[in-house]
Amino acid sequence: MMILHIIPDEKWTQDFIDKINLLFDIKEHFFVVYTNKKVKYCNLENIERYPNIYVKMGKVFDNNDVCDIIRKCDLVILHSLFFQVYDLMNITKFKNMRIIWFIWGGDLYDTYYAAHTFPFKPVNILREHYRKKIISKLIGAIAIEGDYQQLCTWYHTNAKQLFAQYTYKLFDKSLYTISLRKRDKIRVMVGHSATRTCQHIDVFNILAKFAGKIEVVSPLAYPSDNNYISKVIKAGRHIFGDNFVPITDYMNYDEYVAILSDIDIAVFDNNRQQGNGNIISMLYLGKKVYVSPHNSLYSHYKKLGCVIFEFSDNIGNSFLDLLNSHEATINENIIINQFCDKTFFNTWNNVFSL
C-alpha cells in the first residue's frame, strides 16, 4: 500500500509529516510538498532527513517525477484543492487515481462563490469545470459535517465522509501568565485575522452596547489587505475609542499565545468554516468562545460536547458572563483528547483504510 499526500507548504505541514512518519510505516507514505516560491514553513533539515518527501516549486504536475510517483500510489490525498487550472486539468487525466480531498474551508467555499458570483471571470469558470470533474471521482472527503453537507449540495459526488485532523501542539499553559483580571474591563477578541469573512465591523456594531465595559482586541496582521484593515481600525476606534486594540504586527507563536491567554471572550463570526486553530486555543485555555452558526465549526464543537456559544445579532447581557471552572475544564479535556496521538492514529488509519 502506497499513499501519496499532495500538500502545500503551510504552518502545520511539517508537524503533520513528522507525526505520520512517527506513527505509521514511513515506507507506505510519500509527500509532495508544493509551493509557489521557496519553502517558507517546512524545515529543510527534516525534508532532507526523510526519504519520502519531494518538494515541488511552481506547478505541481508539470514534470515526470510527480506523475511517476502518482502512478505508483494506491491512494492520493489532496490536502486542500487550491490548485490553479493547469494542475486541476492534469489531475483529471489520471484515469484510475483513487482520490480523497481534505477540505480546508476556503477551497470549498471561496472557489465555489468565485465561479458562481457576478462578475463571472473565465478563469474561475474554467477552474470550477475541472474541480467538478475531480469531485465527481472522489472516493472520500475529509470534512466536518456542515462542510460535507455543503459539498454534496453543490456538487455531484459519491465521496464517503471521513474525519481526521492535523496535529496541534498543546502548549504548556503554566508558561503563560494568565491575568487575574485586575483590570476593570472584559477583554474581547474579535476575529483571528484581517479576513473579510471575520465580519469585524458587523461584530463591532453588535457589541457597541457594551462599549465602556469591554476592551476589544483584533489580530489584523495578515493577510495584507490594507484597505480592509484601515476600515476595521477606523470602525473599532469610532465605537470603542481607546478600548480598541488592533494587532497589526506579526508576532512569534509564544507572543501570540500570551495575547490569547489574556483574553476573556473570543468572537468568531466567520460566515464559513474558518479560524479553527484559534478556536482550539481558546477552548483549551478555558476562554468563553462565540462562533457564528454559519461557521460549521460551531456545530462540530457543539457535537463534541464543548461549552461553546452561538453569536447572533441579539446578544444579551449574559455575553459578559465568563465560563466557570467546571465548564473550562470540560473544554480543555475535550481538546486534549481530540489532539492526542491515539486519536490522530485512529482517525487517520480510518482514512488510509478506505
What does this structure look like?
α8 links the parallel β8 (186-190) and β9 (214-219). This protein has 14 helices and 13 strands. α5 crosses α6 (122-137) and α8 (200-207) packs parallel to α9 (226-240). The chain has helices at 13-23, 44-49, 64-72, 85-91, 106-116, 122-137, 145-154, 200-207, 226-240, 253-261, 276-284, 296-304, 325-338, 341-352, and strands at residues 3-8, 29-35, 53-57, 75-79, 99-102, 140-142, 160-162, 186-190, 214-219, 244-247, 265-268, 288-291, 309-310. The termini are close together. It is an alpha/beta fold and 354 residues long. The longest helix has 16 residues, at 122-137. The strands form two sheets. Strands 3-2-1-4-5-6-7 form a seven-stranded parallel β-sheet, sandwiched between helices.
Walk across the major sheet and give the strand order: 3-2-1-4-5-6-7
Give a short account of the largest sheet: 7 strands, parallel
What structural class do you assign from the helix and strand content? alpha/beta
The low-confidence runs, each spanning 5 or more residues with pLDDT under 50, are none
Span between termini: 12 Å
Radius of gyration: 21 Å
Fraction of residues in H or I helices: 40-55%
Label the overall shape: globular
| Mean pLDDT over all positions | 93
Number of continuous helical runs: 14
Give the beta-strand count. 13
